[in-house]
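In practice, a research group might receive sequence data for several interacting partners and want a quick structural hypothesis before committing to experiments. The following worked case mirrors that situation: the sequences arrive first, and a predicted assembly follows.
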Amino acid sequence: MKRAGDCLFLLVFGLLILAPGAAVIAQFVPLAILDDLRTSALFGQTVRAAPPDFQTSSVFSTQTQAAIGSWLNERMGRPREFYIRLNNSVDYLLGRSSNRSIVVGKRGELFTTEMLADLCSRRDEGKPVDDIARGLRRAQDIITRLGKAFVVVLSPNKAAVQPENIPDYCAGASPTRLYPRFISALEDTGVKFVDSEALARESARDGMPNWFGKYGQHWNAIGVFYATRAILGLLHEQIPGNFGSLKIEGMTIDDIPRGVEADTGLLSNFVFPLNAVSPHLEMKVEGARDKLRPLIVGTSFSGGFVEGFLSSGLADKVILYDYFHSMFQYESVTRPRIPIEGEVTEHYRSVLKEIDAVIVEVNAPALRSSHIARFVAATEMLH
Amino acid sequence: MAFNSVVFIFVFAPLVCIPNFFLSPAWSNRLILIASLFFYGWGEPRFLFAIFASATFDYFLGAVIARNHGQAAARLALAVGVCANLGLLVYCKYAAFFLESLGQVFGNLGIPIPEVLLPLGLSFVVFEKITYLVDVYRKTTPPAQRYSDYLFFVFFFPKMLAGPIIKYHEINAQIQERRVALDDVIYGVSRFIVGLSKKVLVADSLAKTVEAVFSAPADQIGFGDAWLAALCFSVQIYFDFSGYSDMAIGLARILGFRLRENFNQPYLSVGFTEFWQRWHISLSTWIRDYLYIPLGGNRCGAFRVFVNLWICFLASGIWHGANWTFIVWGAYHGLFVWLDRVVLKDRIWRAMPRFLGVAVTFFLVTIGWVFFRARTLSNAASIVAALFKPTSTSSFQYLGPSNDVYIFLVLGLVCSFIPLLVVVGMTDRIRGFEVVKRVLILLLTIWSFGQVCVSTFTPFLYFRF
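A structural hypothesis for the assembly, expressed as tokens:
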């Protein structure tokens, strides 16, 4: 009996320790029955391992060994995925994340370290946002002289607009937080901007559901609606054209997040499904005679605008400069985006003829993101 | 190749341990030697040849000593061997530190400071090679019958990187003849998993908090964070180091070898003398046998014993690292070991209940760990000062600690202070507890494997859908 127990123990342990190696071997055995063993469905982009280089210098510097390790890791398939997902789920129960950029707040709400650092940081970094605001004002002047509209959108920090579940060690907004100082700087310089955190408070007063899901770091369609409505208002002040007014066509609430609504949860790679209260909103433009032709310069939050502009009928085509680095054209929410080749500043110069508004989106935890400086520099070159 | 790496756990260990179970001792020795050379060469390819050459030199010196017992040639060979090994260690580990320290005292002396990378495990390997030469000289052990046996002793991979420091006569008989029974494999697997869990589940969970506080500006650390970091480090270093020893002992057992224990619940000690009988036992016995006793040990007058103790603990301190913080840590321990002898053991520890003695000793050891962990002496002094300023609060930029830090800190402290032998004795009497233990080991296996795998997967946070 004892011997049977010993053998069973070793058998189970053997399976646990040999499964990842078996998955590596399965990569080279083209049998359909091994598909499940060799594939991994972990979510998230990582740096792909470079093939090992077996030159003597690489071996002696241990670069080869590190590359072999990474190469093997990537091929350990389903067993590795199982270990990672299970570990991440246990970590989540313990109130922590294996991803250094993710923080588990109260009641399992996920935040990023950037969000909490933006909200709770005790650092005082002087007034760096004044220069950024002045740069945006210069850009605004140049673009409006070209007959285009210009709006800056400050997309919100989840921890700031939904602070009820932030960790206790983040004891509320720091007096040195950059966001309110940036708002003041934009007001002082006369930049046309949308303060989405103020809109979030208005949305809460209107009785609307939260803008951020439990497992998400990007705003849902409710946040996009409020921000887009505010943008439309500012655009109507600057350029001729009747782009209509934005209305909510319908809203459903379920527990199935879609797209970015649970992006942080997906990146956390748990074993359990990411069910959380998820409002889904449809918006529509009414009374419009003209279609907006926007150029959006922004962060990953700008994806919400793209979807909002197209799905509501506000625009038929949207050009997005992602971090003023990559360029995409969107013509439908159902069709894939079209990458635009070439250099951003060159394209920017030529595309101004086709658009009627430039919308710059800046995310609250990253107000000093370099895409703003690159955009301002490129705009000043137009002048 | 660290024991807690994916390559070691899922590739190297199975490839070595599984065939080893079915081989005769002779073929097993060949497999393990080749695997050990590969293991060391994987992490330190440049120094593999240096250690190999040094080991070859020691082997021939051992033969010279054995052939010339009692003669000047033997003493010369021993002196050459010890000096060569210590010279290698001093050059690789301490040359830059000594020259920089001299420069700080006397100004620029114009001597170029060598940029030498310290080979992995060199401190352990050098001490083991010295034990071989001295033991052959003392006739404690015969010289290695075969060159391959001596290489096996030097390169045996379970103990090579972080001990325990073994002596040739402890392993020689096992090299020649051993049987690997199923019970050995089960014990070894369980011990390895316990060690891996101690390291990746407990020690690594506390490391982030320790790093955040110890790297903060010294004048911005408050009382609460200082104590949290000090206690976390006390648990971290114990679980990390004892965990590594557990993995080494477990791996060796799977391969059929029994290595000496390196830790015996050191935080249950009363007094620093007992602490060093329970902490890093292989190092403390090495220092006793190869430094303290040759210096005269306890056989001298009180002042000479005092000097001998200080030499040993300063040597212990600097063995741990080339920094003044380690030297101060060694001196701190030397001071309390000496105080044990002159006053504490007879007048203080005996007069108080054991639990109080354990608590006071742990308190003092924890303060000593601050010096061990700090980057500089001033950093250490600031943190120690914060430990005794209850009204001070932290002002450095820091997110956390998250709740899991407190969970693992409490778990670590509880496990450190529970007398495990008593617990094991009690549980052995419970029917079916063996099954519970096996299930627990398997659960720890899955969890600790998960921690190891997750370190290899770090997705970007922001990306486009």
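Before designing any experiment, note the following. Chain A has a mean pLDDT of 91. The first helix of chain A runs from residue 2 to 26.
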